[in-house]
Design goal:
The structure holds two protein chains of two kinds.
Chain A: E1 2-11, E2 16-18, H1 19-25, H2 31-38, E3 42-44, H3 52-63, E4 74-78, H4 89-96, E5 104-108, H5 114-127, E6 133-140, H6 151-156, E7 160-169, E8 174-181, E9 189-191, E10 207-209, E11 213-215, E12 220-222, H7 224-245, E13 255-258, H8 263-273, H9 294-303, E14 312-320, E15 324-332
Parallel strand pairs in A: 4-5, 4-6, 13-14
Antiparallel strand pairs in A: 1-7, 2-3, 6-7, 8-15, 9-12, 10-11, 14-15
Helix pairs in contact in A: 7-8
Chain B: H1 2-10, H2 34-48, H3 54-59, H4 63-71
Classes of the chains: A alpha+beta, B mainly alpha.
Keywords (chain A): Acyltransferase, Transferase
GO biological process, one term (chain A): fatty acid biosynthetic process
InterPro entries (chain A): ACP_syn_III_C (IPR013747), ACP_syn_III_N (IPR013751), Thiolase-like (IPR016039)
C-alpha cells in the first residue's frame, strides 16, 4: 500500500500583466533583459475583490470535472494569503465547494516549500490509515502584499492556485521526503506589519531598498541577494541528500522540478549539481513565481509530456520564505 | 584589478569595458539592478569562491570596494 499523486489542476487569475504593461509603469527599466535572465513574460494578479480562496475554488471545480469530490476525506490548504486571521480558510473551502462534513481540513502556513511539505503530509495521513483521498490546495496572492513602486517584486511574483489529489494506492508513488528550517533568516522575506507583533500602520514610511525599489513595512520585503545566497548554499547539497535517501543518482531521475523562483538562480544551481538542461524544468514564462503553486503547475505541465505510461522518477524541491525547504521523490506514469 | 573588471563586465550586457574603472560607482551604471546583484554573487562564487552578502553589496560603493571583498 502507498500513496500516489493522482491529479492536479491549477488556475491563474484572469488579469494578465505582461512585461510591456510593467514597462509603462517603470519606463527606465529594461524588461527585455529581465525576461531573458529571469525567464518571466507574464504574471497574473487578482483584482481587488478577488482572493486566493476564489482561485482555489476555481482550481477545485476544474478538478471535480474528473474526480468525485465525495471521495475526498481530508483537505490540506497551504497559504500565506488566508481569508481571515480566523477561521481556517480550509473550513470555508469545505462549505463553498460542498465537500462532505465528516472530513479533516486544516490550513498550513508555508510559502515556496509548501507544496512539497503538503505531499509529504498527505502521504503520512494516507499511510497511517487516517485518510484515503487528500485534497492538497496551494493558493497564493502575493500581489496584494506588493508595494506599487516595488518594481523587482512586481516583476517576479504572480498569483495562482493549484488543487492536487493524493490518493491511497497499491503501489508507493511518493518516496522519501526531507526537510530543512532556518528561522534565523525569517526577515529575508517578510510582511512585517498586520500580524500579532506589529499592527498594520496607516502611516508606515516608504523605504527605498536594493536598486530603486520601494516598500513599507505593511508590504512584502525580500532581500534578494540573501535569499540567493541561502539557496546556493543549501539547496544543491540538500538535493543530493534527497537522492541518497532514496538510493538514487542524478541519472536515475527523469526530471528535476524545483520551485520556480528565477531562471538565472535555477540554472546556477543546475550547473552546480551537473544536471543536464533537458532534465531540469524551467517554467517561469507564463505565470512567474507563484510561490507554493510553481511546483504543482510545472509538474502538471511535465506530466503532459509522459508517453506510453512510462514510469518517471521526479525530484521535487521547494525552498524559500521561513527560511524553509523540503523535497523528495515522486513517481508518476501519466498525465496528472 | 583588471581581471576583476573583466569579470564584472561579463555580468553586464550593454556596458563598455572601457568605462569600468576602480573608482566607478557601480550602482550608478544604467544596467545595475537586482538581477545584476544576483549575477555578481554568482560571479564571486564561481571566479573567486567567495561569498558576498547583501550587506556587502549595500555597503560597497566603487568597483574597488567589491574587488577588496574578492581579495579577502
Amino acid at each position: 500500500m502507498g500513496a500516489i499523486l493522482r491529479a492536479i489542476e491549477y488556475v491563474y487569475p484572469e488579469n494578465k500583466v505582461t512585461n510591456d504593461d510593467l514597462s509603462l509603469q517603470f519606463p527606465d527599466y529594461d524588461f527585455a533583459k529581465f525576461e531573458e535572465k529571469v525567464g518571466i513574460k507574464n504574471r497574473y494578479w487578482v483584482r481587488e475583490n478577488e482572493t486566493a480562496l476564489d482561485l482555489a475554488i476555481k482550481a477545485c471545480e476544474k478538478l471535480f470535472l474528473r474526480i468525485d469530490k465525495d471521495t475526498i476525506d481530508y483537505v490540506l490548504y497551504c497559504t500565506q494569503s488566508p481569508e481571515y486571521f480566523l477561521p481556517t480558510t480550509a473550513c470555508i473551502l469545505q462549505d463553498r465547494i460542498k465537500l462532505a462534513k465528516n472530513i479533516g481540513a486544516l490550513d498550513f502556513n508555508l510559502g515556496c516549500s509548501g507544496f512539497t511539505y503538503g505531499v509529504s503530509l498527505a502521504k503520512g495521513l494516507i499511510n497511517a490509515g487516517q485518510a484515503q483521498n487528500v485534497l492538497l490546495i496551494t493558493a497564493e496572492t502575493y500581489s496584494k502584499y506588493l508595494h506599487p513602486k516595488d518594481r523587482s517584486n512586481r516583476a517576479i511574483f504572480g498569483d495562482a492556485a493549484a488543487a492536487t489529489l493524493i490518493s491511497s494506492s497499491d503501489i508507493e508513488g511518493i518516496g522519501e521526503f526531507m526537510f530543512g528550517t532556518d528561522g534565523s533568516g525569517y526577515d529575508k522575506l517578510i510582511v512585517k506589519n498586520g500580524g500579532g507583533k506589529f499592527s498594520f500602520d496607516q502611516a508606515a514610511p516608504e523605504i527605498v531598498y536594493g536598486t530603486d525599489n520601494t516598500y513599507t513595512d505593511n508590504h512584502l520585503y525580500m532581500n534578494g541577494p540573501e535569499v540567493f545566497n541561502f539557496t546556493n548554499e543549501v539547496i544543491p547539497g540538500f538535493t543530493k541528500e534527497i537522492l541518497q535517501k532514496n538510493n538514487l543518482n542524478i541519472e536515475d531521475i527523469n526530471q528535476f522540478v524545483f520551485h520556480q523562483a528565477n531562471a538565472f538562480m535555477l540554472n546556477f544551481m543546475r550547473k552546480r549539481l551537473k544536471i543536464p538542461t533537458e532534465k531540469f524544468l524551467i517554467d517561469l514564462a507564463e505565470g512567474g513565481n507563484t510561490v507554493s503553486c510553481t511546483i504543482p503547475i510545472a509538474l502538471k505541465k511535465y506530466s503532459e509530456t509522459i508517453k506510453n505510461n512510462q514510469m518517471q522518477s521526479i525530484a521535487l524541491v521547494g525552498f524559500g520564505v521561513g527560511l524553509s525547504w523540503a523535497g523528495g521523490i515522486v513517481k508518476i506514469d501519466r498525465r496528472l | 584589478m583588471e581581471d576583476f573588471l573583466d569579470a564584472f563586465v561579463e555580468i553586464l550586457d550593454d556596458t563598455d569595458r572601457s568605462i569600468l574603472l576602480a573608482e566607478t560607482i557601480y550602482k550608478d551604471l544604467d544596467e545595475w539592478d537586482s538581477m545584476t546583484a544576483l549575477m555578481l554573487i554568482a560571479m564571486f562564487d564561481e571566479k573567486y569562491e567567495k561569498k558576498i552578502t547583501g550587506n556587502d553589496i549595500k555597503e560597497a560603493t566603487t568597483l574597488n570596494d567589491l574587488y577588496l571583498i574578492a581579495l579577502k
